[in-house]
Amino acid sequence: MHFEFDSETGVIRDKVTGERCLIITQARVAEICTRLSEIFQSGAKLIIFEAGKAAGKRFAEEAVDIRTGDKQLFLKTISQRYTEAGLGKIEIVEFNPEKSEVTFRIWNNFFAEIESEKAMYRSCIEGFVSGMYEQIIGKTPKIQKTKCVTDGDAYCEWQMTLK
């Protein structure tokens, strides 16, 4: 993402979408997640998943015109925008468009570094990528976490396939 700060108005805008943005620290995101868990307990994971899913769908819609059918370009574009947003470096490890399968890694995962319940951040990421996947494939994916920095791995990794 490329941002533009207007010092006259104090407004930050995404240059791609024109939408207003804000900068929020990991500590504030952690506080939000902790509070959601306190209030909604196990239901917080579902709320985070659904919020992430809606954000993923919107993110995909903004990335490129997915009607072109160029799924490789789509993955490259959304990976770049995710990385530029400061959320971590995405690496597409495998992509099989015929089977609609994707394996990807996130290095320096913003959400995994938050000192909160593992399942909470995983719900956010899994919701987000589920929403993006649905935008390109038109179906809900099966998502499997294979590696995690919170388990001592160097990166977080997921595999997505059709259910």
What features would you highlight for this structure?
single chain, 163 residues, alpha+beta, Muramoyl-pentapeptide Carboxypeptidase, domain 2, 4-stranded antiparallel beta sheet, 3-stranded antiparallel beta sheet, 4 helices, 7 strands
Task: Write up what this structure looks like.
The strands form 2 sheets. This protein has a 4-stranded antiparallel sheet with strand order 4-5-7-6, with helices on one face. 43% of the residues lie in helices and 24% in strands. It has one domain: Muramoyl-pentapeptide Carboxypeptidase, domain 2, CATH 3.30.1380.20. The chain has 4 helices and 7 strands. By secondary structure, the chain is an alpha+beta fold.
SSE blueprint:
Layout: E1 3-6, E2 11-14, E3 20-21, H1 26-40, H2 43-63, H3 71-84, E4 89-96, E5 101-107, H4 118-137, E6 141-147, E7 156-162
Antiparallel strand pairs: 1-2, 2-3, 4-5, 5-7, 6-7
Helix pairs in contact: 1-2, 2-4
As a percent range, the share of strand residues is 15-25%
**How far apart lie the N and C ends?**
31 Å
Strand order of the largest sheet: 4-5-7-6
What is the top-level CATH class? Alpha Beta
SS elements, strand count? 7
Assign an overall shape: globular
In a nutshell, what does this entry contain?
The protein has 163 residues and is α+β, with helices and mostly antiparallel strands. The protein is built from four helices and seven strands, in the order βββαααββαββ.
